[in-house]
Design goal:
Largest sheet: 3 strands, antiparallel
Strand content: 15-25%
Shape: globular
Structural class: alpha+beta
Length: 70
């Protein structure tokens, strides 16, 4: 595989899960941002070659969070 998990429990810490739970976007501009906010994710981040990621809330018509995209 790609080194990325197929799915993670919503309770698990990570940018997409945090966005899905809180409705607040998580922007990670570089490895330093990852190390500061999600230090346990840094090895995976570097192994798959990410440079930056935007993790955005998906909202329904009323503005309520219903998921995330990253």
């Amino acid at each position: 595989g790609s080194g990325l998990p197929e799915a993670t429990p919503l309770e698990q810490e990570g940018p997409l899960n945090d966005v899905a739970r809180t409705g607040e976007d998580v922007l990670l501009r570089n490895a330093g941002d990852v190390a500061a906010r999600y230090p346990d994710m840094l090895p995976m981040w570097e192994s798959v070659g990410f440079g930056a990621t935007a993790n955005l809330a998906l909202r329904d018509r009323t503005g309520q969070p219903m998921g995330s995209l990253g």
